[in-house]
Design brief:
This protein has 22 helices and 21 strands. With 613 residues, the chain is an alpha/beta fold. The strands form six sheets. Strands 6-9-10-11-12-15 form a six-stranded parallel sheet. A five-stranded mixed sheet has the order 17-18-19-20-21. Helix 13 runs antiparallel to helix 17. The structure holds flavin mononucleotide (FMN).
Length: 613
């Protein structure tokens, strides 16, 4: 339920600098995933009619360079590129995972699931105005729905990996897009993780045969030849444990052992920046990087795993895993808990990500490496504890991040900026160019060369060199001054039809809830923007980046395919019936007119990304 204070907050949104908005008053927005039938129908129709898939143009698909191998081994499983979405909004719904894959992701840290799978997340829950903040607590689907989404995603990738029209844009020299890895993520305590419902989820991910067989019948005509395909049934046998949201430190050990013993998994423990200690974190964020406006939450440090115990635990758990023939790793880091001084999102606490987190996570890596000589699997240390990374990674620092030896670098905040999934392929192209310039042909040779350079420059390892660089004077990409620019604004109230057509609402939406259709004759603007209301969880990200005054998720025509969802919601909306008719309602007397416009837009097949419904 929405609280009064929340209504007050969203009203405040209209007053808040650059966050003008219409209140999301009246109902919350649970996600209603799109069926496999509709997703595949969209793939075929959109590809044929507009040369894109889920609104991503083929020009933004990643095709590996024939000369440079960016592949790596993740706990013995091969992934054809070292990047992918971090657990978060980009790895929750099937189409999100497909979009990340088309952009070149080959390692997917899936959205964290947990036993409390019917939590209501307050909205807005994402604020990427400058650096990154969120209050997104957990997955927004039930455990069963999450499993289905991951199975649908895997089936879509299996089909697209063989579908000639796409293959042409994503295949490497071996004629394939290369292997990918799904890494599960669970939280947040032993009781929840050992609950039979979470166990069922993990078992379902390890062998998804039953779910795949159930979904085969949904594969629509353009892809009928794939109905009997031998789909990958073992979706995942690695897992990243999220130790966030109060995961008790003493349970990290028990949960990891439980996952190894009971589920036969390789396990990565995702650590929090609190390991660096309050004073250290505060002084880096406030004094060194200049974020005077960030209030690091001191109480979160006492509740979290402490450094000395963390060091012991990494050694113990690595030994435990090895003794059972498994791999163990750490992931740096989850977000930083800070007080919500901005008050744009309706919680007392929010979670910081993006550029400043990069400095914290890299510093933590260097500190851990020093405290654990020979343990971490990074250059200069050469141990066997795998290290993966997620903290403020983007095109400009991907190569430097990977040079530290982390595998993979996963990304969240950067993909929530304009361009969205389309930002991935340019990252990989820039990385390819860097590797090529060094005269090497693959990531491990390039890293070895970088390590030699670091030593020659007087550092013990590439990680120390990177930390010295990013914590040196005047490194703008990470400071408050370097991240002060606000999204562009124009002085115009957003209307249902017609806008500046910047496309930002499409690209910043992790769920691909927006799409555009060419305007009708006489209509204002080149493109009209519409939103799949069932895919929109009102996270607020489109509102942050829309240059006009208004909330695209509320103002643009909200489409529904499920009658029950449509009638259960308030505000304007348009129900698309399977017979092709449209039923609409608006908040004023424009309902009949608006419904006619929406129906005509949807009928204009040349510019419409949707298959016949
Ligand atoms: C909106 C949002 C939702 C997130 N959800 C999760 C989650 O479910 N589980 C998790 O372990 N981390 C979650 N994270 C943290 C990210 O996985 C990542 O570790 C963090 O954002 C740092 O990477 P970045 O700077 O690239 O965003 C979330 C982050 C954001 C911004």
């Amino acid at each position: 339920m929405l609280t009064d204070s929340y209504v007050g907050l969203v009203t405040q949104r209209a007053l808040h600098t650059n966050h003008p908005g219409h209140a999301h008053v009246g109902d919350t927005a649970p996600l209603t995933p799109m069926s496999l039938r509709l997703l595949l129908g969209r793939v075929a129709h959109e590809f044929e009619s507009r040369n894109r898939i889920f609104d991503l143009p083929t020009g933004r698909f990643w095709r590996p360079d024939p000369e440079i191998d960016l592949g790596f081994s993740f706990a013995g499983r091969r992934a054809a590129s070292p990047i992918g979405p971090a657990a978060g909004p980009h790895s929750q719904l099937a189409q999100n995972i497909v979009l990340a894959w088309l952009g070149g992701s080959r390692l997917f840290e899936l959205k964290t699931v947990q036993i409390l799978d019917e939590l209501e997340i307050a909205r807005p829950c994402i604020d990427m105005q400058t650096i990154g903040y969120n209050i997104e607590w957990s997955q927004e689907l039930t455990l069963g729905q999450s499993l289905t989404e991951y199975v649908k995603a895997s089936m879509l990738l299996d089909i697209l990996s063989q579908w000639e029209p796409v293959l042409e844009h994503v295949a490497g020299t071996d004629g394939t897009p290369g292997p990918h890895v799904f890494d599960m993520s669970v939280g947040y305590d032993l009781a929840g993780i050992s609950n039979p419902r979470v166990a069922e989820f993990i078992v379902g991910m390890r062998d998804a045969t039953a779910e795949i067989d159930r979904l085969r019948a949904e594969i629509p005509e353009p892809f009928a030849e794939y109905r009997d395909l031998e789909f990958s049934a073992g979706l995942s046998d690695t897992l990243t444990l999220s130790t966030f949201h109060g995961c008790p430190p003493e349970e990290i050990e028990q949960i990891t052992k439980h996952l190894i013993d009971e589920h036969d998994l390789d396990v990565i423990v995702k650590l929090n920046p609190t390991l660096l200690g309050y004073e250290n974190v505060r002084s880096i964020v406030n004094d060194e990087l200049g974020y005077h406006d960030v209030e690091v939450k001191e109480s979160a440090f006492a509740e979290d795993l402490q450094f000395d115990r963390g060091i012991e635990l990494i050694g113990e758990l690595n030994d435990f895993a090895k003794a059972r023939g498994h791999r163990f790793g750490i992931k740096l880091t989850n977000t930083l808990v800070v007080n919500n001084t901005k008050q744009w999102m309706p919680e007392d606490t929010m979670y910081l990500s993006g550029p400043p987190l990069h400095v914290l996570a890299s510093t933590l890596l260097a500190t851990l490496a020093d405290a654990l000589p020979g343990a971490l699997a990074i250059p200069g240390h050469d141990g066997d504890v795998m290290v993966s990374f997620s903290a403020g990674v983007g095109k400009d620092n991907l190569a430097e991040t990977l040079a530290m030896g982390v595998n993979p670098a996963t990304i969240c905040s950067d993909l929530l900026k304009p361009g969205g999934y389309g930002r991935l392929a340019p990252m990989l192209k820039a990385l390819t160019a860097t590797v090529a310039e060094s005269g090497t042909t693959n990531l491990s040779d390039w890293r070895a060369a970088r390590q030699r350079e670091a030593i020659a420059a007087g550092h013990r390892a590439t990680v120390d060199q990177h930390v010295a660089f990013i914590r040196g004077d005047g490194i703008d990409p990470y400071t408050r001054a370097g991240n002060a620019k606000l999204p562009r604004e124009v002085d115009n109230e957003l209307q249902m039809f017609g806008c500046v057509a910047c496309n930002f609402c499409i690209t910043v939406c992790p769920n691909d809830a927006f799409f555009s259709i060419s305007s009708l004759d006489g209509q204002e603007g080149r493109q009209q923007y519409l939103v799949w209301s069932e895919l929109c969880n009102e996270c607020g990200n489109c509102m942050t980046f829309c240059p006009e005054d208004g909330d695209p998720a509320m103002v643009k025509p909200r489409l529904f395919t499920d009658e029950a969802v449509f009638t259960g919601r308030t505000g304007q909306g348009f129900l698309l019936r399977s017979d092709g008719t449209v039923v609409g309602r608006t908040d004023d007397d424009s309902s009949a007119e608006a419904t006619t416009v929406v129906a005509r837009l949807l009928q204009s097949t040349a510019g419409n990304p949707l298959p016949n419904m």
